[in-house]
Amino acid sequence: MENKKYDVIVIGAGLGGLGAASQLAIEGKHVLLLEKHNVPGGFATSFVRGRFEFEGALHVLSDIGTEENPGSFYRYLEKLGVVPDHLKFKSAREYYRSVFFDGYDVTMPFGVDPFFDKLIELFPNETEGIEKFKEICLKVQDGFDYIASKGGIASPMAILMKHSWVARVAGLTVEDLFNRCVKGKRLRAVLAQIWGYDGLPPSKLNAIYFIITLISLLRSATYPIGRSHAMTSAIVEGIKNLGGEVRYNALVNRILVENGRASGVELLNGDIYKSKAIISNVNPICTTMKMLPPEVVSESYKRRIYAPQIGVSAFSVYIGLNSPPKKLGLTSHETFINATDDNDEIYDAMTRLEAPKIIVAACYNNIEETISPPGTSQLVLTSLQKGNVWHSVSPDQYHQIKDELANEMITMVEKTISPDLRKYIEVAEGATPLTYYRYSKNMDGAVYGYTQEILNSPMLRLKGRGAVPGLYLGGAWVNLGGGFYPSINSGRMAAAACLNDMQKGRL
Ligand SMILES: Cc1cc2nc3c(=O)[nH]c(=O)nc-3n(C[C@H](O)[C@H](O)[C@H](O)COP(=O)(O)OP(=O)(O)OC[C@H]3O[C@@H](n4cnc5c(N)ncnc54)[C@H](O)[C@@H]3O)c2cc1C
Question: 294 alpha carbon to ligand 1 midpoint, in Å?
Answer without folding.
Answer: 26
